[in-house]
Amino acid sequence: MADDESAPLLRHNLNRINYINSSGNYGTSTSSQEFSALSGGQPKTKTYWYRWYILGLFALIGALENITWNTWGPIEASSRLTYGWSKGTVSLLADWGAITFVLCVFPSAWLLDVKGLRVPVLLCSASIAVGCGLRIISSESDTATPLIHMGQFVIGLGGPVGQSSATVISSTWFPAKQRTTATAVASLAAYVGTAISFVIGPAFVTDIEKLTGNSTTQPNVGQKIGKEIMNLLYLEFGIACIFFVLVLFTFPAKPPLPPSTTASLKRLNFTQGLKQLFRNPQFQLIAFLYGITTGVYSAWCSDLALNLSAYDISNDEASWFGFWAVVAGAASGIILSLIADWFGGFMKAILLGLFVIASASFTVFSLMCVKIITPTLGLLYATSAAGGLCLNGAIPLFFELSVEASYPVAEGINTGFMTFSNNFYCLIFLTLPMIPGLNTKWMNWALVGSCIVCVPMMMFFKEKHRRLEVDVRSGCDNAVINAPSVA
């Protein structure tokens, strides 16, 4: 499209956004003066091959953040033996991630809005390295326990950036037809990290539940397991330091030219954007649905070994349940995002289908745990994997729908609010096991309920693609849209 033809079209898009804001009470968006900076025409756009390196490095950092956060759940029994912890202590170590997230999510969103990507990602990688460093200072229980708690707290400080920046990465570096896929890779990497933690922990640390007889009470067993745990912590610290150095020297704030029209336009400032999110009922609905499903599910996965021990399922088996569920979810998330990018819509219909399947899968899983349905190992694996496939696969679709529903609110503020919702429900779930006398058999049914309640509520969400339509109307990237317009 020639420049003399694109200028009127961009002005039309601006008027359209302002019309949406005035009629839908979404605040003031880009001002007409901003378009003068575009030289009266369509802004130059370009994609760079190294966007895939930026995405890959960010994904690895997100995965490591969750690996280090979930260090203790997969080796719950062995760590309790080594350090003399209670089950409540193990839950609290996981809980620090949710606590720090609730405290830091909005400051992190502000930092993303004001500083762009480089500074927040650098601070995120630094917090992981420092937190891992605190955990390796001592192996003596009395000294190590408070240091490990401090380490988990510091690691958690990086969580908001790792979880809230997926849509910022995709909008800053990727064209419209690749945004949902990039969001999928960036957001699901953290959950892949959780899956890896279910494998790497048991691979390094002997499962005490596999030892029989007097061997569990011999002093050298505790010493051996303690050394294995320290080796795991050393490995995580080393990798965290490598990633910090890579971010320091190779991670820019943004590309030289934007990848799409909307990437070149300013968003609402932090205060305006936050106000508009609270005033937008469609965004509030999608944030609740995302939080109640993925928040409860991520907490359920973190406490899976603790939960399933009540049903005589070993830590090792519980770890593999969690691993395959998350791997299936990551694969489905990327596949579904590719479909959404290709067709440009239909995310609501996909999410409805995912909720129905997840509800059925986790119901069967829970009924097997209480022996109402005869349990078999194959069916336990199949139902937990199917449920994880659906809930983890829904994450990038949730993120993209929320951004589209609230545009022109900045992506970091939007996704920060979404992940706040996730961690709020995660925090509630992880706190309950610390109540004296409360068993863990409610956990499966809480997960089932969180999935079922979302099926009818999703029907009230109106799918609209505000941001994508601006790119479509500007002729950017040959973007397509097959969902209701914002008119």
What percent of residues adopt helix (DSSP H or I)? over 70%
The low-confidence runs, each spanning 5 or more residues with pLDDT under 50, are 1-14, 19-41, 480-487
Indicate the CATH topology.
Growth Hormone, Chain: A
Straight-line N-to-C gap? 24 Å
What is the makeup of the main sheet?
none
- CATH architecture assignment name: Up-down Bundle
Number of strands: 0
User: How many independent structural domains?
Assistant: 1
Mean pLDDT: 79
Count of runs of 4 or more consecutive helical residues: 21
Tell the overall outline. globular
Q: Using the CA coordinates, give the radius of gyration.
A: 23 Å
Specify the structural class: mainly alpha
Q: Looking at the chains present, what oligomeric state does this protein adopt?
A: single chain
CATH class group = Mainly Alpha
Strand percentage lies at: under 5%
For CATH, the homologous superfamily is named as MFS general substrate transporter like domains
Helix-strand pattern: HHHHHHHHHHHHHHHHHHHHH
Observed structural traits:
487 residues, mainly alpha, 73% helix, disordered N terminus, disordered C terminus
Structure in words:
The protein is an all-alpha fold and 487 residues long. The protein has one domain: MFS general substrate transporter like domains (Growth Hormone, Chain: A). The chain has 21 helices and no strands. It has helices at 3-24, 32-36, 51-69, 76-83, 87-115, 118-135, 141-157, 159-164, 166-173, 179-204, 219-250, 270-279, 281-302, 304-308, 315-343, 347-369, 377-406, 411-431, 442-452, 454-458, 466-473. The protein is globular, with a radius of gyration of 23 Å. Residues 1-14, 19-41 and 480-487 have low confidence and may be disordered.
